[in-house]
Structure formats: C-alpha cells, structure tokens
Specification:
By secondary structure, the chain is mainly beta. The protein has a single domain, classed as Sandwich (Jelly Rolls). About 5% of the residues lie in helices and about 35% in strands. The strands form four sheets. A seven-stranded antiparallel β-sheet has the order 10-7-12-5-4-3-14, with no helix packed on it. It has a three-stranded antiparallel β-sheet with strand order 9-8-11, with no helix packed on it. A two-stranded antiparallel ribbon has the order 1-2.
Length: about 190
C-alpha cells in the first residue's frame, strides 16, 4: 500500500487518496462548536475512512460530546485528560484519565465534561457500510437532560437533535489540547 499524499486545505492537512499517512493532530482538520467542544477527525469530509471512525475530542467544562443517543455500531472512548461523565442507559459513570468506556452497538450514551480543565478523549467506532440501514436514535433521558445533553422528544433526525447548534470547520486552535498532550517529541 503506497503512502497517501497530504494536501493542505484551509482547515488543515487531509489525505488525498487511499494509503497510509502520518499527520499531527494540530495540523489535521478540526470542527468547533459552542457546547459541543472541538474534534479532530484526521480525514476529509469528502473521503471518510471506510471501516473505522477515529477522532480526538476536547470539551470544556460543561460541554457535551453529542446528544444522548444509541447507534447501530460499536464505539470506544479513551480518556486522555480531564474529568467527565459517561451517561449510559440513564446511569452516570465518572471518567478520568486512562479510563476506557466500551459502548456496544445500540447502547444509549453520551459523554459530558465535568471537571475544571478540558476533557480530552479519543473516540473510535465502526463505520456503517453504505448498504446497511442507519440505526441512530436520539432518546429522551432525564439524566442526560440534567446535563444539557438530552433531547425533549425522541428523534432519528440529527438536524432536530442538534437544532441551534452551529459547527464550524477549521484548523486546530492553540490551547485546545493540554500542554503535555500538545508537546511534540519529533
């Protein structure tokens, strides 16, 4: 497998074509939102990884990583810094650095930043093949709603669940990653 060339865009370096590559999170594309924090996706919107979604998320205290939902694919979350909660099937589970949250398919969940420092975690999940129907539902849950991470009415529509939320694609913003994560060893 050849190396994929990296192309500089206004949002960061993205792979062009199939192949392996190495890119620093500070040079990759990010998405930023008030209330949903920031996320680094390592891929372009035009060419997503076919088998595995992988991103780094940075939530400021009180931010949520999504709205409370269940989806038809397995996910995993590894906490790198800060403190948060995994709200799973209506239960709160505290998270701290190096905790891993395994989330099987169809398990209702959301992550919320609760500490005083940024909550930084890696999220990885199986990508749904194009010929497989979507199984994504945003569920009503009072525990999630208490943290501002739940919908008032069940929906399968992301535009409804995230009404009023504005995402802005862009480059890495200095300071989003904690200093010890932000240091380069190259």
């Amino acid at each position: 497998m050849p190396e994929a060339p990296l192309e500089r865009t206004e949002h960061g370096l993205v792979p062009k074509g199939d192949g392996w590559f190495v890119v620093n999170a500070r040079e990759a594309p990010w998405s930023h939102s008030k209330g949903l924090g920031s996320a680094c996706f390592f891929e372009s919107q035009e060419q997503r990884f076919p088998q595995l979604g992988f991103n780094v998320n940075v939530l400021t205290p009180g931010d949520k990583g999504a709205m409370y939902h269940a989806e038809g694919s397995q996910e995993g979350f590894l906490v790198l810094a800060g403190e948060g909660l995994a709200i799973v099937e209506g239960q709160e589970r505290p998270l701290r650095p190096w905790d891993y949250f395994h989330c099987p398919a169809d398990t209702p969940h959301v992550l919320v930043a609760t500490g005083t420092e940024p909550f930084v975690y890696i999220a990885a999940g199986r990508r749904r093949p194009e010929d497989e129907p979507s199984r994504l539902v945003y569920l009503v849950d009072e525990t999630a709603r208490k943290h501002g991470a739940g919908v008032a009415e069940e929906t399968t529509e992301g535009r409804v669940a995230y009404e009023g939320v504005e995402l802005a694609d862009g480059p890495y913003r200095d300071g989003d990653l904690p200093d010890y994560v932000n240091r380069s060893t190259r």
